[in-house]
Structures are given as structure tokens and as C-alpha cells.
């Protein structure tokens, strides 16, 4: 077995690196830049039942070592994703994790049921944490009971394992993690973005038309690392960690605090080749650390 | 093809108040297909600033493998960029987007190139290519004031060049539309790039003409993946949209709703 | 009246700029660098009833555009602060805001009662949000009821107005703000640090001996701005805003989202002269914005 | 007095693997009072990296208003610093802390100066001042390997200089203690700076000698205000502590608990 291969519920990963949802579209643009079969997996853009246009622009604003976004779940809708985007991705030898979003349980269930039957969708990522839409699931992301129930409802209809994506905008992320574990989640992905705002110096108004947006990038990495460390010690679920990953050292850090794989979001905008670059530098990193297989890193900071 | 190139700074100088001319050398040059395309520049290797900056390609020199960027350093990222020195290398992603169609104007016809402020740069390469093809180019360029006017000689060398400044310190006082009002309308095509109110006014004034408009929007990825830069299209049948970065930045006049 | 003067409960500020608690000690070190009478106010280091030694070192770690700290409320204790630190500060014409910390209500009450009688202490800042001590008040900072009760208990004994310092590590900062308002708080200061962690690349262990620390600096500014915007629209209390302030534009931003004054923390380490530098550049900033008096900026982003 | 100075880079060069020699000019030089003081350097004007870096003053030239820093560029901040070029200015805060007491050794007496790795730099200015005063300096300097040894000629010009390298590629194989074992103990004072295990070993070996030890700790402010850099003192009566940045970095041997 390769030194980088990793097995997670539903996922046989060549390596534990995958682009994060919303930062990679449905892969087409990056497919023009490199062979997507190199990736461990792909987390595709949030899919809702109906077509969504999303928020007015500006939708992004830069901040110190980070950025805000309020795209607003723009996506072509379940039908088109099933008919066009997923089939296109079949040309690559890479498992797809479908990010499922909605406004109420019924939406989530409908999308989960359908999309989980696509041949290349090997897992779902339940997006209960998108801060950028009025009715976009944030209520599911902050109340443990609601989260547990939604997880259970989706689990019931899904043909593939279900990962739940947690929001960092909560008092206790451990409570949320335990709730979705109780609801039957197969894994956790974390963290989604922190809610933030930036004003335009010239006008005094928020830059982002939606006023607030989700903060991502290197700025949030310390918060993400802390939360993954907490959750990995409080639940038995495998974690796909994310938040500010830009290089192989960041991957080592997320694994060290207990993640089993790592997603890369914002860094794809800074360097579109970041995912293959990280993958190519991982073995050297393992040599440096004197580690045979990457899975040995998982949780090592708790043992030290 | 879009490539990531560590381009060498061949020359970097200030040419007007806060306006810089940056000449870069690298193989990215060979990938450029039309005037009006842009590059996405990482101004430093640090996380602050984090995102790339979209800058139009103002001039292409294929023989030397060089491109020229003209940019205004008034924000954080362009400020950092303006301090980079000759010999340094800069991480550039590009060429991005679809530029102005030079084939839309025939040799012998007249084209109006209307630019405002930092919308002027892409029109320079456009004019070079149009005039080379035998199109007569008329340049109408608007600026805030005389001290931020740039490249007027370069444009003048290619064709009639009219300058407007808001405060009247150079050329016509007022906006490009004040110049346009006094010019004949017997041209074939217009090409424009600049601030949104200007684009609107130009599109309105020349509503019956064939024209091409280059837009700006805040960007994340620059390659069409993040949906940061969408604009609604005029065709509102099913709320359709375009991405400025990958579908544009240049669109036929009337397509994008402004 | 000066264009920068601002009046808040208990505080006549020459200008709305003050160093944040824990980032300025008790003023002595900075007093060697510039005249502290220039400052709007000084928020002194957290004071507890007894002497505290604090956490083991390392206590700080740098992060992208930010830093983590886990000092652990090291301070000489109430008695010494009253006998030595506060009297020393009397040489300056500057109101002191005393940051009060403790482990349980009785401690807080004892410190608040005593320290509020010091002649130069014009207000208290109730630190219910320090993330770096096991029994350091974080429970008070995340539960609205506990926070309300503590606020009421301290209000009862304090001789000066009481500001409560809110933690950003909560699901709803508005709920916390409303709770302390109901408890009788005279004002709010926000935000304290976000809990984070950074690993040492060489050892794989957390750099900070306490494992987690509080994230501060420019990285957190978008979160702080968003939270001040929310709280200022949900309560009637004046807010002293903080989180990543480094220059006059940041001050304008915090006022624009509803703060009445601004505290500067981490930036004092990057540039020890940052407070007087900001103060000296504020009038020019007002001219740029075409504003007569700085108070006109308060909440302008809500009105735009 | 501590001042903030925008110092000019007079010279900047690599002198060993990842080791740089940086000469800065500015009025801060006039404020330095003892060898072993340090400066707090802001390596760039961006927020990444955010904090200053503490670096010892390795040499002071009052006439030229110049100081020399010797540093290892292996982390993020020192990496950025290493790319700054001559003519640029750097934001430096200092001088900070209390250095080595040269008055602790009389003219004619012998002092052992024991340094390890990036603990070596402050010993250079110390040796210059001690030898100028007539003290006989013996230098015992430990490094990882031959390719990171620096300033051995400069030290040799001031007095006996013994090098130890962990891998034996230069001088004695092993640690400074291996050199110390073979040297007479008829010296008056020792001064030491380096990694904690080395400081411990030196303090133990010379427990009966008068000595001064320079410590390192991660810093926030560097001026004594943030309590990031405290160390417990040996005197545990009431858990007393010192701040490395403002009470130190140099303490009499035995004061700080290690
Ligand atoms: C397709 C395209 C071509 C462009 N060509 C040029 C050119 O040739 N010359 C030139 O001077 N400028 C050009 N611009 C505008 C230029 O991108 C912005 O002025 C620049 O990004 C501002 O960055 P800053 O560091 O100065 O400001 P900051 O305030 O630091 O920028 C913060 C963030 O906002 C974004 N941003 C701010 N203003 C704009 C804007 N007007 N458009 C897009 N993003 C913005 C930045 O990219 C960055 O992400 C172009 C923009 C686009 C979209
Ligand atoms: C009083 C004093 C004098 C020093 N003199 C020298 C010198 O003359 N030459 C030299 O090469 N080094 C010296 N050091 C060590 C030097 O400060 C660190 O190597 C440097 O700060 C590491 O920064 P970085 O950007 O390379 O690493 P990063 O990993 O980017 O540093 C991250 C953070 O950790 C801090 N940090 C990391 N390692 C250390 C350390 N060993 N000590 C203190 N802070 C650390 C940094 O200051 C920064 O805040 C001295 C340290 C102190 C405290
Ligand atoms: C522009 C943008 C769009 C995003 N869209 C989604 C989304 O549709 N669904 C989702 O679950 N997360 C979305 N996210 C969050 C990311 O998947 C990721 O959780 C977050 O950005 C933190 O990782 P990073 O710091 O590497 O970007 C988006 C993030 C960005 C920056
Ligand atoms: C080293 C350090 C020590 C701090 N100590 C305290 C403290 O004792 N009491 C307190 O209420 N806040 C403390 N804080 C939090 C700050 O007062 C402030 O709320 C926070 O740092 C955000 O502001 P900044 O980004 O400007 O630093 C401390 C912050 C730092 C960096
Ligand atoms: S900037 Fe990402 S889609 Fe256009
Ligand atoms: S570094 Fe702040 S007290 Fe020493």
C-alpha cells in the first residue's frame, strides 16, 4: 500500500488531500490545469434541490491572511448536477464527496437521496453550517438536537456514508460533534467558515453585499486546529480537517491533532496547483518526520 | 492555456501619480490569445495580502517574451507590488479570461476605444493589434486629473487620442462622454473598459452600435471556480449569469445587465 | 470640545483610544516610552484577589496575522495592585479601567468592590471571557444566565460603572450582550480572544504549554467587526470595540459598526508607539472623511 | 533608552549555511549600554509575520553608528528578513534588556565565553569589550557541524578559541562540555549563551564559579509588559519570577531555575 493511502468510511483515498467544497466548483476549471485523478477525493460545490442564483456581488473581500465570502450557495440545482457535473467527473479516477445543502429537512433528504446514488459519489458532506444564506442550514449547524435529527433523517435515505460539516460559530463544537455522532454520522468534516465582516474604507459600508461573510484561509487555522483537537478526543468519528491549509506542514498539523484527511479551500485561489503540490511534497515530509505511513501521524499530538 | 509562471521583473517604474508600469518576462507571454485578457498576480509570497490581484495585460511583446502591466497602487496589495524590484520574480497566473475580439472590426473601418482610469491599460494592446490590422483607432481616455494621465503619447502614436479629465487639468473638462458628444458617430465598433458608470454611459450613448465592454468585479479564484465574480445577464428568462473572470471580462455590449 | 473627546459611563475620554487589558501591563513599561496622559484611558492587566503566577511557558505563539497567548492571568494580586500599581499610575492624567478576573462570584465581587474605590479607577471591565485559565471565568462568559447574575452581583458592590468583556467563543454573542445588559452592565467591551492552537512543526506538540491559547491580532478583526455590528444593533449599551486594531482606519471601522471607543491589544507588541500614533492620525482621518466630531462615525455603517 | 529606529541596511550577507550577518545603521546604536542586549526586529511591514524577532547585538560600532546582527534564517520571520537588501530600512526596537556585566571581570583575569549555535553572537561584542579592558578571553563555541560554524576567525583574533561540533566535522567532536573538560578551571568568570541543555551543563560544571547566563524565551512585547517570557527563579519562597526580556536576558548563574 502506498505511504499516503487512507481508508475512511466510503472512501478509498490515494492520499488524504482533497479540495474543499465551494473552492473547486465541480472540478472543470481545475481539470483544465492538472489531472484530477491525482487528488485523494473532490468535495464538490454545495448542491441544493433547486437552482440557486446566490447572493448579490461583491461576494468576496480580502482580510489579513484570510478572506470573507458570501457566495450564497449558487449552484445549478440537483438535476443539472446529476445530469451534467457528476457524469463529467466520471472521467477521473477520484471519489466524489457531494456537499448537500438545503433550507429544511425535506430538501436535504431529497438531495441526499438522489445524489448518493450517483456512481462516483462515495460519500455525502452534509452542509449544516453555511453562514451565508438566510435559510441555508445555519440553524441546523448551531443547535445539537436539530443537527442530530437532520443527520438521522439523511442517514436513512443515503446510499453512501454521511459526513457532517460542522460550523465553528458555536460555543461548544464538541456538543455538535456528539450530536451528529448520535444521529448516525459516519464522519465529520470541519471547519466551515467563521462569520465575519469587513467595511469598505471609502464608503463605510460592508464590502460584501450580504454584509457578513464566512472567514477562511490561514487566519482561521489556529481555531480549526483547536476544534479538530477537541472533537477528535471527544468522538470516535473520523474527521476530515480543514481551515487555512496551504502546505504539507499544515496537513501534518491537522493529522497530528486527529484528522484522518485534510481539505484545502481558499488556498486553491492563491495557487490553483496547491493540491497536487501538497500531494507531491507529502512523502518527503514523511521522511523528514521519520514516519513510514501517513496514518501514523493521526492524533500524535495527543500522545506526545 | 492558463499557466502559473514565476515571471522576472524586467522593468518597473512609476509613470504618473500612483501609476506604475511593470514589465515582466516569462513563458506565460506565449499563451496570450487576445487583447483584454488579464493576469492574476500574487504580489508577495506572504499571507498578507493573501489573494491575487487581477491586472490587464497592457502590452505583449512575443519576441522578447515580455508583457507590460499598468496599474494603480492605491490599495494594500498593489502597494506591496509597487515595491518589488527589477530582477525579482513574481508569481503570475494567466492569461485569464476572454479579451476583445479584433475580428469584430474590419481593416479600413474605424473603432472607438473608450477607457477610464485603470480601465485604459487593456485598450493599449487592443489598439496596437487593431491598427496593425489596418483599423483606424480613435482613443477617448478619461482620467481624474492631469497628474494621473498615462500613456497619452503611446496612444497618440497609434491614432487620434482625446483626453478628458474630471477637473479639466488636461484635455476636455469632464467625462469621456463629453468628448464623445463632439465626435462623429460614423465608426464601426466601440471597445470600452473603465468604471461602471462610464460603461453604462458609453453603452447608452452608442446603444445602436456594435460594441464590446470589459467589466471588473472582485475575484477569488480568477478561473471560474468560486462564483465570486458573477454578473446577471440582461436575458432574465431564468436568472442566468456570467462569470467575469472566465466568461469575460469582455462581453458584447448589452449582454451583461448594468 | 475637542474633535476626539468622547463621553462614556464613568469615562471622560480625551480620545477614544486605549490599550487593551493584558497588552500594556500596568503601564510602567510604556510609560518609559511616551507620556501616558495622551491616552484616552488605560485598561490595566487582569487583577485577581490573590497573586497569580500564571501558566508555564511558552505562553505565546505566532500565527498568520495573529498570535496566541496563554499568560494565565499572571498578576501581583489585588493588594499589590491597589498599593503599588494604581498609585504609580496617578501621575498621569488618564482614567483607568480595571480588568477584574476571578474563579467564582465571590472573588469577582471582592476585587470589584475594592478596586473600584481607587481614585483613578473610573470603570471596571469584568473579564468573564479569559480562555486561558482552568477556573478563570470562561464559564461566566458562555452562559447568559451566569453572566447576568455575575454582572448584577458586581454592579451591586462597584463604586464605578461596570463594563463586561464578552467572549467571541459563543454561538450567540447577542444573547450574552443582552444578558449582561439585563444584569445591569453599563457597557460592553468586546471581543476577547478566540480559542486556538498551534503545533510546533518540529515536535508535533502544541507550542503553547497550556496547549490552547487566545487568538488576537489582525486575523480576528473581521470576527470582531461582525460581532460589534450585531451587538450594537441589539442592545443600548455603549461598546468599547477591539480585535486586531492597528491603525486609524481600524478605529474608524469599529466606530462605524457601533463601537464608541476602541482598545488596542496585540498591536502594542508590534509597535509600542501604536496608541499615540493612532491618536495623532485621527484628526487627519476625520478630515478625510469630512466629519467634524469623531462621535459622528458611531454606527454609520448601519445607517448607510 | 529604548527607541524605535528605522535602521538602514548597510550590509547583508550569508556567512555560513543559513547564517546571515546583517549590519544596520541608525541612532539606536547610541543607546546601547552593554554587550548581550538585544533588539526586536520587525522583519517586514506586513502582518505576516506579525511579531518582532529578538536578535542579539553581536557587534557595536559607535563611530559608524552601526550594529551587527548574526542570525540563523530557518523560520518564517528570519527567512523573510534574510531577503531584505542593502539600502532598505528595517524597523528595529531597542536596545532591550540587560546584557553581560563586563565589570564582573578585572583586567588581567581570565573569562570563559561559552556559546552554542545562535547563542554565540552576543559573546562577540562581549569579548571585544572584555579584551579591550584587558581581560583574557577564552572562547568555547559549539555548533552542529562545520557548515554552520561562523565567526571563528573573529573570535580567534581576540583570544583562544575552541570549536566543538556535534558531528566532529570541525574542532572537537561533541559538545562544548567536551572542550571544557580539557581546559583548566583557573579562570575568574564565565559568560554563556546558547540552548537550554548547554546552559544547564555549563552551570553545573562551573557551579562554584561566578558566571552569567543569557536566556531565550518566546516573546510578545520584548519590553516587559506582556508576561510572555517569564521564568521562575530558583528562590521559590513565593514563586517569584523574572522576565527574560526586561529583567534579563542575562542573569547571574543560579538565579533562574533551569
Ligand atoms: C479583469 C480586471 C482587470 C483589471 N485590470 C487592471 C489594470 O490593468 N490596472 C489596474 O490598475 N487595475 C486593474 N484592475 C483593478 C485591480 O484589480 C484592483 O484595483 C486591485 O485588485 C486592487 O487591489 P489593491 O491591492 O490596490 O486594493 P485592496 O483594497 O488591497 O484590495 C482588496 C481586495 O479587493 C479586490 N479589489 C479591490 N478593488 C478591486 C477592483 N476595482 N476590481 C477587482 N477587485 C478589486 C482586490 O483584488 C483584493 O482582493 C482590474 C480588475 C479586473 C477585475
Ligand atoms: C534575547 C534573545 C536573543 C536572541 N539572539 C539571537 C541571535 O543573535 N541570533 C539568532 O539567530 N537568534 C537569536 N535568538 C533566537 C531568535 O529570536 C529566534 O531564532 C527567532 O525569533 C525565530 O524566528 P523565526 O522567524 O526564524 O521562526 P518562527 O518559527 O517563524 O518563529 C515564530 C515565533 O516564535 C518565536 N521564536 C521561535 N524560536 C524562538 C527562540 N528560540 N527564541 C525566542 N523566540 C522564538 C519567534 O520570535 C516568533 O514569534 C534570540 C532570542 C532571544 C530571546
Ligand atoms: C468561496 C468559498 C465558497 C465556499 N462554499 C462552500 C460550500 O458551498 N459548501 C461548504 O460546505 N463550504 C463552503 N466553503 C467553506 C470551505 O469548504 C471550507 O470549509 C472553509 O473555506 C475553510 O477552509 P479554507 O480555510 O481552506 O478555505 C466555501 C469557502 C469559500 C472560501
Ligand atoms: C498577551 C495578551 C494578554 C491578554 N490578557 C488579557 C487580560 O488579562 N484580560 C483581558 O480581559 N483580556 C486580555 N487579553 C485580550 C485583549 O485585551 C484583547 O481583548 C484581545 O487581544 C483582542 O484585541 P487585539 O486583537 O487588539 O489584541 C490579552 C491579550 C493578549 C494578546
Ligand atoms: S473569480 Fe472565481 S469564479 Fe470568477
Ligand atoms: S516579552 Fe513581553 S514581558 Fe517579556
From TrEMBL, chains A, C:
Active site positions: 130
Domain named Dihydroorotate dehydrogenase catalytic: residues: 4-286
Stored InterPro entries: Aldolase_TIM, DHO_dehydrogenase, DHOD_1B, Dihydroorotate_DH_1, Dihydroorotate_DH_1_2, Dihydroorotate_DH_cat, Dihydroorotate_DH_CS, Dihydroorotate_DH_I
Residues noted as binding substrate in the record, renumbered to the chain: 45, 69-73, 127, 192-193
Pfam families referenced in this protein's UniProt entry, alphabetically: DHO_dh (PF01180)
Known pathway: Pyrimidine metabolism; UMP biosynthesis via de novo pathway; orotate from (S)-dihydroorotate (NAD(+) route): step 1/1
Function of the protein: Catalyzes the conversion of dihydroorotate to orotate with NAD(+) as electron acceptor.
Protein name (Swiss-Prot/TrEMBL): Dihydroorotate dehydrogenase
Organism: Savagea faecisuis
Gene: pyrD
UniProtKB/TrEMBL annotation, chains B, D:
Residues the entry annotates as binding [2Fe-2S] cluster: 221, 226, 229, 245
Species, as recorded: Savagea faecisuis
Highest taxon listed in the record's lineage: Bacteria
Keyword Flavoprotein: yes
Keywords from the named record: 2Fe-2S, Electron transport, FAD, Flavoprotein, Iron, Iron-sulfur, Metal-binding, Pyrimidine biosynthesis, Transport
HAMAP family (alphabetical): DHODB_Fe_S_bind (MF_01211)
Keyword field contains Metal-binding: yes
Protein name as annotated: Dihydroorotate dehydrogenase B (NAD(+)), electron transfer subunit
Database matches in InterPro entries: Cyt_c3_hydrogenase_gsu, Dihydroorotate_DH_ele_sf, Dihydroorotate_DH_Fe-S-bd, Dihydroorotate_DHASE_ETsu, FAD-bd_FR_type, FNR_nucleotide-bd, OxRdtase_FAD/NAD-bd, PyrK_electron_transfer
Cofactor: [2Fe-2S] cluster; FAD
Listed Pfam families: DHODB_Fe-S_bind, NAD_binding_1
Subunit relationships: Heterotetramer of 2 PyrK and 2 PyrD type B subunits.
All residue ranges annotated as the FAD-binding FR-type domain in the record: 2-102
Cofactor note: Binds 1 [2Fe-2S] cluster per subunit.
Positions with a binding annotation for FAD: 53-56, 70-72, 77-78
Family: Belongs to the PyrK family.
Protein function: Responsible for channeling the electrons from the oxidation of dihydroorotate from the FMN redox center in the PyrD type B subunit to the ultimate electron acceptor NAD(+).
Amino acid at each position: 500500500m502506498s505511504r499516503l493511502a487512507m481508508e475512511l468510511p466510503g472512501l478509498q483515498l490515494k492520499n488524504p488531500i482533497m479540495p474543499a467544497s465551494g473552492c473547486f466548483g465541480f472540478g472543470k476549471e481545475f481539470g483544465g490545469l492538472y489531472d484530477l485523478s491525482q487528488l485523494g477525493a473532490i468535495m464538490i460545490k454545495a448542491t441544493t434541490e433547486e437552482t440557486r442564483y446566490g447572493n448579490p456581488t461583491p461576494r468576496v473581500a480580502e482580510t489579513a491572511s484570510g478572506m470573507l465570502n458570501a457566495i450564497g450557495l449558487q449552484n445549478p440545482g440537483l438535476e443539472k448536477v446529476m445530469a451534467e457535473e457528476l457524469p463529467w467527473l466520471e472521467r477521473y479516477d477520484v471519489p466524489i464527496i457531494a456537499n448537500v445543502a438545503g433550507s429544511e429537512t425535506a430538501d436535504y433528504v431529497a438531495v441526499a437521496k438522489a445524489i448518493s446514488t450517483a456512481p462516483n459519489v462515495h460519500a455525502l458532506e452534509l452542509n449544516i453550517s453555511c453562514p451565508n444564506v438566510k435559510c441555508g442550514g445555519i440553524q441546523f449547524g448551531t443547535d445539537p438536537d436539530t443537527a442530530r435529527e437532520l443527520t438521522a433523517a439523511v442517514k436513512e435515505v443515503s446510499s453512501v456514508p454521511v459526513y457532517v460539516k460542522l460550523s465553528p460559530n458555536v460555543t461548544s463544537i464538541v456538543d455538535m460533534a456528539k450530536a451528529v455522532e448520535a444521529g448516525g454520522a459516519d464522519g465529520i468534516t470541519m471547519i466551515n467558515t467563521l462569520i465575519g465582516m469587513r467595511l469598505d474604507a471609502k464608503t463605510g459600508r460592508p464590502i460584501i453585499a450580504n454584509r457578513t461573510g464566512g472567514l477562511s484561509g490561514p487566519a482561521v487555522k489556529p481555531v480549526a486546529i483547536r476544534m479538530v483537537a477537541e472533537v477528535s478526543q471527544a468522538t470516535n468519528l473520523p474527521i476530515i480537517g480543514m481551515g487555512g491549509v496551504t502546505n504539507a506542514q499544515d496537513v501534518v498539523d491537522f493529522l497530528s491533532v486527529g484528522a484522518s484527511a485534510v481539505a484545502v479551500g481558499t488556498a486553491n485561489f492563491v495557487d490553483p496547483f496547491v493540491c497536487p503540490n501538497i500531494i507531491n511534497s507529502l512523502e518527503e515530509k514523511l521522511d523528514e518526520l521519520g514516519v513510514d505511513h501517513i496514518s501514523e501521524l493521526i492524533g500524535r499530538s495527543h500522545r506526545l | 492555456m492558463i499557466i502559473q509562471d514565476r515571471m522576472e521583473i524586467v522593468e518597473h517604474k512609476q509613470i504618473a501619480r500612483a501609476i506604475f508600469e511593470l514589465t515582466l518576462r516569462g513563458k506565460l507571454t506565449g499563451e496570450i490569445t487576445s487583447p483584454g485578457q488579464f493576469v492574476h498576480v500574487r504580489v508577495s509570497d506572504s499571507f498578507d495580502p493573501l489573494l491575487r490581484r487581477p491586472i490587464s495585460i497592457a502590452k505583449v511583446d512575443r519576441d522578447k517574451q515580455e508583457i507590460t502591466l499598468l496599474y494603480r497602487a492605491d490599495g494594500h496589495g498593489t502597494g506591496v507590488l509597487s515595491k518589488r524590484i527589477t530582477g525579482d520574480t513574481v508569481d503570475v497566473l494567466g492569461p485569464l479570461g476572454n479579451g476583445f475580439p479584433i475580428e469584430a472590426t474590419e481593416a479600413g473601418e474605424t473603432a472607438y476605444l473608450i477607457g477610464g482610469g485603470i480601465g485604459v491599460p487593456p485598450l493599449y494592446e487592443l489598439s496596437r493589434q487593431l491598427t496593425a490590422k489596418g483599423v483606424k483607432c480613435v482613443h477617448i481616455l478619461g482620467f481624474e486629473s492631469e497628474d494621473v494621465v498615462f500613456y497619452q503619447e503611446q496612444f497618440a502614436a497609434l491614432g487620434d487620442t482625446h483626453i478628458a479629465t474630471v477637473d479639466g487639468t488636461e484635455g476636455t473638462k469632464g467625462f469621456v462622454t463629453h468628448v464623445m458628444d463632439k465626435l462623429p458617430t460614423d465608426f464601426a465598433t466601440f471597445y470600452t473598459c473603465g468604471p461602471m458608470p462610464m460603461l453604462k454611459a458609453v453603452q447608452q450613448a452608442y446603444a445602436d452600435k456594435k460594441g464590446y465592454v470589459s467589466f471588473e468585479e472582485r475575484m477569488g479564484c480568477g478561473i471560474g471556480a468560486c462564483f465570486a465574480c458573477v454578473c446577471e445577464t440582461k436575458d432574465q428568462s431564468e436568472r442566468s449569469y456570467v462569470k467575469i473572470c472566465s466568461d469575460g471580462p469582455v462581453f458584447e455590449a448589452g449582454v451583461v445587465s448594468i
